[in-house]
Design goal:
- The relative contact order is 0.13.
- The chain has 446 residues and is mostly helical.
- The protein has 16 helices and two strands.
- The radius of gyration is 26 Å and the shape is globular.
- A hairpin with a 2-residue loop joins strand 1 and strand 2.
- A two-stranded antiparallel sheet has the order 1-2.
């Protein structure tokens, strides 16, 4: 017969064991909650970023190639399209070899590192947040491709192809990669490493890194090279605006990858970035069209497509920080101001920016960067204290504009002069008159 005391002890044992295991389980859960979980691959985010990467590449080839190709004279259409295509190939290799490493590694606020030279260390399982690092690298590669390609519009019809390749190689490594590092380099906790980012400069998708950078470099190149032969005298009207409309349309569609993709996730912020991108592009297309209609009595096809691109440029730095009302105002302002930049400023200062790379991208990037400080909000951007009309944020944006413009102007000027000294920048007068298609590439459009 069981003794009562033995029965009690027999019952206490399992109860104590259950209590011990329950306590241990709670402790383990608490410890797990206290330790941040390592990022895990998110299939939805990865799928969206694969699509965004393809969309941004579409912006350069064929988008920008067609947009610029339609705006030059017929004798130069293949030459300008060749520049966009060759830059896409050149920068892809440069980005793999050193560009990505210089932009997105290292702990210096000013200079990138060498940890990812030749993409060393990137395996199919290495992640950047919730997406493979290979996808993040590719997404950023497409940004590095389109930025120098934008510059070519400023010196269309007159630069040697060989000199262009050398200049762009140096420019991507010595201008684009450092500025990219200053604005977008983050540490593993998500804190800004680059000095402009650490100072609070906001650039969601490339207002400073892409558009001000390219626009100012284009302006410097146009001034250093001098105007085209016959500029202001000969008829230099676009030879085929149909190509330009197709190119601008591809740019518009591709820009959703550019801006919404910069969220690096398929989430609400990406959705809002897509919405404000569409609103700003449409508003700027209309404001440019009406400004031209009022001043020149006719709304032109080139004007409305240029206005749309101006709106896309201006909303780029703001797209992850502003709401629909801010986007509407940014677009309306950008269309009018960029129309002035292309139709007024260029003629007043007498420089030959062939396809208005500075008038649209430089001026539009500056407008967008500053207005980001005016309309950025905590509700959209997610940063505490980010209030619409915050004077301190506007000053930070102006600081970012000035630093970026000054750096790219100075270094671009030095690089252009260096290339000119070593191999010459400009084609001969006879080659320019003949056209770059035949003179440089031995081909022509009939």
């Amino acid at each position: 017969m069981n003794h009562p005391i033995k029965s009690v002890l027999a019952g206490v044992g399992p109860a104590l064991a259950s209590l011990f295991y329950a306590t241990a389980s709670v402790a383990e859960e608490a410890a797990a909650a206290a330790t941040p979980a390592a990022p895990a691959l998110d299939a939805g985010n990865t799928a969206w970023m694969l699509i965004s990467t393809a969309l941004v590449l579409l912006m350069t080839i064929p988008g920008l190639a067609l947009f610029y190709g339609g705006m030059v004279r017929k004798k130069n259409v293949l030459g300008v399209m060749m520049q966009s295509f060759a830059i896409a190939a050149l920068v892809s290799v440069l980005w793999m070899v050193a560009g990505y490493s210089l932009a997105f590694t290292g702990d210096s606020p000013y200079f990138g590192g060498f940890d990812r030279l030749f993409l060393d260390g990137i395996e199919k399982t290495t992640l950047s947040g919730t997406i493979p690092e290979s996808v993040f690298m590719m997404f950023q590669m497409t940004f590095a491709i389109i930025t120098p390609a934008l510059i070519t519009g400023a010196f269309a019809d007159r630069m040697k192809f060989s000199s262009m390749l050398v200049f762009m190689t140096l420019w991507v490594l010595l201008v684009y990669a450092p500025v990219c590092h200053w604005v977008w380099m983050l540490d593993s906790s998500g804190a800004a490493v680059g000095f402009l980012g650490a100072m609070g400069v906001l650039d969601f998708a490339g207002g400073t890194v892409v558009h001000i950078n390219a626009g100012v470099a284009g302006l410097v190149a146009a001034i250093v090279l001098g105007p085209r032969k016959g500029y202001g005298v000969d008829n230099m009207a676009p030879h085929n605006l149909t190509l330009s409309v197709i190119g601008a349309s591809l740019l518009w569609v591709g820009w959703f990858g550019f801006n919404a993709g910069s969220a690096l996730a398929a989430d609400g912020r990406a959705g809002m970035a897509m919405a404000v991108t569409q609103i700003a592009a449409a508003a700027a297309a209309l404001s440019w069209m009406f400004a031209e209609w009022i001043l020149r009595k006719r709304p032109s096809v080139l004007g409305i497509v240029s206005g749309a691109v101006a709106g896309l440029v201006a909303i780029t730095p703001a797209s992850g920080f502003v709401g629909p009302k801010g986007a509407l105002i940014i677009g309306l302002v950008a269309g009018v101001v960029c129309y002035w930049g292309a139709a007024g400023l260029k003629h007043a200062l007498k420089y030959d920016d062939s396809l208005d790379a500075f008038g649209v991208h430089g001026v539009g990037g500056i407008v967008g960067a500053i207005l980001t400080g005016v309309f950025a909000s905590e509700a959209i951007g997610g940063y505490p204290g980010l209030l619409e009309g915050n004077g301190g944020q506007v000053l930070a944006q102006v600081y970012g504009v000035v630093i970026t413009a000054a750096y790219t102007a100075i270094v671009s000027f030095i690089l252009l002069k260096l290339v000119d000294l070593v191999m010459g920048l400009r084609v001969s007068s006879d080659e320019e008159r003949e056209g770059l298609d035949l003179a440089l590439h031995g081909e022509s459009v009939h």
